[in-house]
Amino acid sequence: MNLPFDLFTPLLLAALGALFSERAGLLNIALEGQMLGGAFTAILVQQLTGNLALTVLAVTSFGALSSLVLAWGTLKLKADPFIAALGLNLLVPALTSWVSFLLFGNLGVIRLATNVAPRWEGIPVTFLLALALAGLAHFVLFHTSWGLRLRSAGASEHLMASRSLGTRGIKTAAVVISGVLGAVGGAVLALNLGAWVQGVSAGKGWIALVALYLGLRKPLPLLLAVALLAWTEQLSGALQAIPELPQGLLLGLPSLITVVVFVITSAAGGPHRKSARVTSR
Amino acid sequence: MNLPRAHANPLIGLSSTLLALAVSLLATVVLLVVFGSHPLSALRSFFVGPFSSPLAWGNTLNQSSLLVLTGLAASVAFGAGAFNLGGEGQVYLGGLAALAAALFLPPVWGALGILAALVSGMVAGAGLGAVSGALKARWQADELITTFLLSASVVPVVDSLITSPLFGAAGSFLITSRKIPQEFWLPGLLAPSNLHWGALLTLPLAVVFGVLVNSTPWGYRLRLLGRNRAFAQYTGLSMASYSLLPLGLSGALHGLAGALGVLGTQHALVQGFSSGWGWNGIAVALIARTNPWAVVPAALLFTFLDQASRMVVLQGQFPFQLSALFQAAILFFITAQIVRRRS
């Protein structure tokens, strides 16, 4: 079976985003909303300007800004990271439909006239970039002093405090990276599709979190986890073409498989640390 | 997780909550004034609309009774340190179980059939919640993720079941199941609104939970679990049963909400009828700081604001997501320590 690039790339980007935030001890639960917002921003700016560079800039800014809001709420106002992020996840779909209503007078589909996703030798360039990013993430997190500081901020805030090293800056940076990757992931998803559809992220931001744990919170195993999850989603899509099979069961299949795999890794003493909860105390 | 809970000085906790509510309300009103085509009439229907007629009154009360249930469900779980994010699926599955009972039990059962349908809704919701509890007890699978994902996988299954030959209605344009027999409808109150007698059931339930959680040894153990899991374990609490219990109980309350929606309001299972009940229950529980006593006023307040947003939307002044904006603002600010604690 071929690797489903269109599912793999957005999921990998978001999962890498989850990785940075989790390693810094502030797991980004808002990825789902940020993917959705990135998808909307991409189609919106691409439709209005037709300029891919501007689109990338806008998507990146959206990801960074939404993450800064989250960092402000959780690190400065000491809001619970989980609940504040749920708020963000609720906010984004409301905002997208509102902006779409203001600009286009409808809440539905925005379709791009031209397909802008570039390919190299038939392989989507975004896929190659995402793979390179996974390698880069591995290098930054495990072979630079900044990466060590980031991981220390997540692993032991007390240690950092005892060395008079603040963690707010590095956590903010990690959440911003995470939000940018999530938003870009959403943008790739929508640009591959060539259209904006309500709820286009369809839980991928959550599945990215599962990929993170399944991938043992390391960039390279993460690739395998993302590939597995992308395949199950493709499988569920392919099975839906068979009318004899119960459709509802198939639509629920990706979440169900994800639960099963999640439970298996948990049972195997997987690395579920519930970082968001531990560090918020 | 620093959930908002009773502070040593209750006034600080309360003022923090009120401030979060005020910020969210202010944001909504500013949006209304800036973007509404007729700001004054928009404001009028926002603040007066939910009380303008028996119809509006009844709908507000009915909706808040359901939110009392899902709010209690969330606060029971949260208070015991279990994060039930599967409310959406538990409510929906509870609705399906109640529908199945109401469609297949003989209508002559009357009130007994209603009771059976409500109980099957509770059992279904409790079952779904308990699965996550069992997964946690047996394999340490974080319930925060399993409840959410199990709920996400149940929703499409219910969606497709209601149109299947087993439950489906022939020739209906709505995506809905068959109507349940009239013998099993919960009798209405304040017609033509959706209020029904079942909604009154939620008040004594809130009292029961208030007493159970705040004034019994059993409730004390649950709260201890929420405050300090390690300490609770050290005192000899069975972690296995106390993983199952809060999630099962929470699921049962969610399921009951779904069952009431089917028997009292819809008299059928309309696709997505309960969408948002689970999430709003979480918001209510957080406003109430997971205290069952505070869930009733929190649910009333939340429903008022929700209905108020809908009134404005009905006027055509705003696309339909205004209430979501408001809910998002509440969730974002409700746990924030806007009011600094004095040390």
Description:
The complex is a heterodimer of chains A (281) and B (343). Chain A has 281 residues and is an all-alpha fold. Chain A has a single domain (5-111, 124-279), classed as Orthogonal Bundle (ABC transporter involved in vitamin B12 uptake, BtuC), CATH 1.10.3470. Helices cover 74% and strands 3% of the residues of chain A. Chain A is built from 12 helices and 4 strands. In chain A, the strands form 2 sheets. In chain A, strands 1-4 form a two-stranded antiparallel ribbon. In chain A, strands 2-3 form a two-stranded antiparallel ribbon. In chain A, a hairpin with a 2-residue loop joins strand 2 and strand 3. The longest helix of chain A has 26 residues, at 168-193. The N and C termini of chain A lie far apart (46 Å). Residues 272-281 of chain A have low confidence and may be disordered. With 343 residues, chain B is mainly α. Chain B has one domain (10-334): ABC transporter involved in vitamin B12 uptake, BtuC. Helices cover 69% and strands 0% of the residues of chain B. Chain B is built from 13 helices and no strands. Chain B has helices spanning 10-35, 39-48, 54-79, 87-104, 111-139, 143-162, 202-215, 217-227, 229-234, 239-266, 277-287, 292-314, 322-334. In chain B, helix 1 (10-35) runs antiparallel to helix 13 (322-334), helix 3 (54-79) crosses helix 11 (277-287) and helix 5 runs antiparallel to helix 6 (143-162). The longest helix of chain B has 29 residues, at 111-139. The radius of gyration of chain B is 20 Å and the shape is globular. At the A-B interface, helix 4, helix 9 and helix 11 of A face helix 5, helix 6, helix 11 and helix 13 of B.
